[in-house]
Task: structure prediction
Amino acid sequence: MKGGRPAGLFTWLAVGLVVVVVAGLVIIKVASGGTTNGGSSAFQPTDPTTFHELTKVPASIFNTVGVTSPAVLVSAPLTLKNQPLLTSTTSTGAKLPEVLYIGAEYCPYCAAQRWTTIIALSRFGTWSGLGNMTSSAIDYAPNTPTFTFVKSKYVSKYLVFKSVEESTNVFNSAINNYNPLQKPTAQEAALIKKYDTGKYVPGLTVQQDGSIPFITYANKFLVAGASYGPLTLAGSTRSDIAAGLSNTISPITQAIISSANDQTAAICTLTKQQPRSVCTSSGVKAADKAMSIK
Result:
């Protein structure tokens, strides 16, 4: 089930957070908290089997699913027009398009989003350092299985990926919020302030500016809020979801892979349709057509 982002929203205030529901998809805004590193649950590297299933999805799976997700609403990235290209300079001096993710470990919608974003980016580069994570045990969609970017590294000749996990999944009653973890740079904060607003995300109010998860694809596309809801993953373990990525009739797989094709199509516009084996594939072309990318 494909869909855009309608304007109807409502807010929910709880445990120091603002939760914004957009047509069944929720974005969560941190309403308070510190800026220094805080406590976190122990880092657990993702096991080799799950990592392989997550980052080596066969092309046939992408092409079979395409943009088909009849059971789960999937929202494609929002297109930005006439915005300056966000780039980053690599250690070798190459200037490449930058993908910036802002989220938090407690956030269930960030948890859902990481699955599809990791898979999409795997088509353009190589991951290392991913860790296992679950969203907050005391929030909406508790203990959603996912990963954390806090120690991750991503290498690509096509683009640069940067991430900020603002908070852990550990709630601290002393500050009535989740422990702070990573802080955006001044430049990253400026991007959030500019683009994570109702001016670019239809339906957001001023009070909801700065919500997470937020991803800018080089300021040409945005993901604001999860591409599908975290309850899609309810009752499944991390290993179940990863192993099930080979099952093209699974509603979970369809939601994740359909969203990954959408994001791949957006990224292909940044990489000048490279690698061609990815960007000319039938699954990506279906997403390209559905999103009307020019």
